[in-house]
Design a protein that fits this description.
The complex is a heterodimer of chains A (118) and B (133). Chain A is α/β, with parallel strands linked by helices. Chain A has one domain (6-116): STAS domain (Transcription Regulator spoIIAA). Chain A is built from four helices and five strands, in the order ββαβαβαβα. Chain A has helices at 22-39, 56-72, 83-92, 105-116; strands at residues 6-8, 11-15, 43-47, 75-79, 101-102. Chain A has a five-stranded mixed beta sheet with strand order 1-2-3-4-5, with helices on both faces. In chain A, helix 2 links the parallel strand 3 (43-47) and strand 4. The termini of chain A are far apart. The model of chain A has no long low-confidence stretch (mean pLDDT 94). By secondary structure, chain B is α+β, with helices and mostly antiparallel strands. Chain B has a single domain (4-131), classed as 2-Layer Sandwich (Heat Shock Protein 90), CATH 3.30.565.10. In chain B, a hairpin with a 2-residue loop joins strand 2 and strand 3 (69-78). The longest helix of chain B has 22 residues, at 33-54. The model of chain B has no long low-confidence stretch (mean pLDDT 90). The chains are: A alpha/beta (118), B alpha+beta (133). Chains A and B meet through helix 2 and helix 3 of A and helix 1, helix 2 and helix 4 of B.
Chain lengths: 118, 133
């Protein structure tokens, strides 16, 4: 199972549409970093609108990929986190601090635009 | 206790299988989307604990009823190494896996009832219940 990564100008867009198992999540982490390297993308939006469950493992993988991309010089914004997912994550004790987020894809792109000053 | 379903946890993919089955049962019992997410996430954490620490175990689901309440009981049982200090693993932030897994305190917060029994060398049994509101 591979998650498709789309390129749009300097950005990479990812919409996660499948149930994330551990292996898929780790594969995605690797794929995204390679893609950033190859395309020289400066910004990434990961849209989670269709994701119904984020457990501690998936949260860690997502939080890590934000930090890893940051190290490479690309800004990542997570978008579309569902109300039920947000409530569950906080109750679980996972705060994902320092992870840039936005309400939806549109807001996410806007945020990247502002942060990267393009 | 009429319906009972079980998922054996041996490989990584079984974690997904367990939470899919749990979500389906929770949905059929009439849980709303937020509670479905809570239950599914709790199952995911319990299943991952089995996979990480015990290697083999099972998660089973039962519909439960008491007086005017109905709910789901999720039981995670393994024959792993067991837990030496139960009060320690119930502390927020305690981890032996280097930050993987939010741990049992998180699961306890997501569910309404939480019981744990463990014997070193024999295994661990965790029983949780969520009631339909």
């Amino acid at each position: 199972m591979r998650i498709p990564i789309l390129k749009l100008h300097n950005y990479l867009l990812i919409s996660i549409q499948t149930e994330l198992d551990d292996q898929t999540a780790i594969q995605f982490q690797e794929d995204l970093l390679k893609e950033i390297h190859q395309t020289e993308a400066t910004g990434v939006v990961i849209d989670l609108t269709s994701v119904e469950v984020i457990d501690s493992f998936i949260a860690k993988v997502l939080g890590d990929v934000v930090l890893m991309s940051d190290l490479m010089g690309a800004k990542v914004v997570l978008t579309g986190i569902q109300p039920a997912v947000a409530m569950t994550l906080i109750e679980l004790g996972i705060h994902m601090q320092n992870v840039p987020t936005a309400l939806d894809l549109e807001q996410g792109l806007l945020k990247l635009h502002q942060e990267l000053g393009e | 206790m009429d319906s009972k379903s079980c998922v054996r946890i041996m490989k990584e993919w079984d974690i997904v299988a367990a939470r899919q089955m749990g979500r389906e049962i929770a949905k059929n019992l009439g849980f709303g989307t937020v509670d479905q997410a809570r239950i599914t996430t709790a199952i995911s954490e319990l299943a991952r604990n089995i996979y990480l620490y015990a290697e083999e175990g099972r998660i089973y689901f039962e519909a439960v009823e008491s007086l005017e309440l109905k709910g789901i009981r999720v039981t995670a049982e393994d024959t792993g190494p067991g837990i030496k200090d139960l009060s320690l693993v119930m502390e927020d932030g305690y981890s032996t896996s280097g930050g993987l897994g939010a741990g049992l305190p998180g699961v306890r917060r997501l569910m309404d009832e939480f019981d744990i029994e463990s014997e070193v060398g024999k295994g661990t049994k965790i029983v949780t219940v969520k009631w339909v509101r």
